[in-house]
TrEMBL record:
The chain crosses the membrane at residues 6-24, 36-56, 62-85. GO terms for cellular component: membrane. Pfam families: PQ-loop. One of its GO terms (molecular function) is sugar transmembrane transporter activity. This is Glutathione synthetase. It is a multi-pass membrane protein. InterPro entries: PQ-loop_rpt, SemiSWEET. Keywords: Membrane, Transmembrane, Transmembrane helix. It is found in: Membrane.
Length: 89
């Protein structure tokens, strides 16, 4: 394994791990009131694009990190959309 590969794994682990506390808090409380729908829309779209890019070039760390982050972002996004719809209805 090259130093560059190790750097990729470390970066993937850090960015994914940094997102977990927000996801856990949002899931536990069921509240996304203070979160921006635009931010999570862009985050979800961006991580899905990075996942697709990683798939296209066969980069497993890139796919793993962005697949996990996209999954967590999708859950938060869904909670946020539900909150917005409840508020409107």
């Amino acid at each position: 394994m090259t130093y560059l590969s190790i750097l990729g794994f470390v970066a993937a682990a850090l960015t994914t791990a940094a997102f977990i506390p927000q996801a856990v808090k949002t899931i536990r409380t069921g509240s996304a009131e203070d979160l921006s729908l635009a931010t999570f829309s862009m985050l979800l779209a961006g991580t899905l694009c990075w996942f697709a890019y990683g798939y296209g070039i066969g980069d497993v760390p890139l796919m793993a990190a962005n697949g996990i982050t996209a999954s967590l972002a999708a859950v938060i996004f869904a909670i946020k959309v539900q909150a917005v719809l409840r508020k409107q209805g």
